[in-house]
Each structure stands twice: as C-alpha cells, then as structure tokens.
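Usage

Read records sequentially. Each one opens with the input sequence:
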Amino acid sequence: MEASQWPTEPADRVKAVVERILDQLELEGEVEITEDEDVISAVVVGEGDYGLLIGKRGQTIDAVQLLCFQAAFQGIRDRKRVVLDAAGYRARREEVISDRADRAAEKAISSGDEVELDPMTARERRIVHEHLKSRTEVETFSAGDEPRRRVVVAPLLSE
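and closes with the structure output:
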C-alpha cells in the first residue's frame, strides 16, 4: 500500500492493516469496523479457520491488535482502545477465564487459602478482577512481574 493510499482516519487504518494481514495469511473474511468514543472494534467475519490469526493462547491476535493500534494512531494525539476479534475468540476466552476465576474463588473459600491463577495478560487479569468484584467473600490482586504476572484470589475472612 503506497503512502498516498494510506487512510487518514484511524478506523480505516485498522481495517486496512487487518485486511492486509488476512491477505498475507491467505485467509478469507470480511473486516467489520465499529467505533464509539472509547474503542475501535475490528471483527473478522467469515467461515475460515482463523487459528493462524489467533495464535497460541491469542498471542498472534494480541500482537496484530497492538500493531493496529500503533498504525491507527501514528502521528495522532487523541487515542482510543483498539480491539481485534476473529471467530468469537475474545468472548470464548473471556468465558474460559471467568470459569477459572469462579473455580479459584470456590477453592479459596472452601480451603481458606489463597489461590494463584496461571500467568495472564493485563487484559485477562482485568477480566478476572472485574468478574470476581461482586463476590464479597473473596478479594483479588495481581502478583509477580511480566510476563509471569498472575491473579491471586484470596478468601476474605469474616470477623
């Protein structure tokens, strides 16, 4: 793509980057863009197997998402989040993480001990914290250093 063809709007830039990556990976699919005041969302829709785009534990789709963010806002001061999804991966991953968080909470309550979850990305840790926020019998906090940072679920002892 020549510089003269490079879109000026961030959402259009995100779409262009994702379409180019799909072409390079020889994957079929449409890129649907939605935008609000906080987030630009790009969703790859189609019947293809997007495992190559998603990657192991979502590492590839997270990297492409970061690339989209950097391309979208290059030279632009006002920024917003960019979220990339394919084949419903983000929703499925959130469900898996929420289920693990619930199991950890139950274990912490029944054992009275802290339960450490596996290392997670910042986004995944946020899902756990938000998911368990309403459970008054446990608290959550993050421990460790990147890339091995994890969530700890601790029982709240009643007085």
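Summary fields computed downstream for this record:
- The mean pLDDT is 92.
- The first strand starts at residue 30 and ends at 35.
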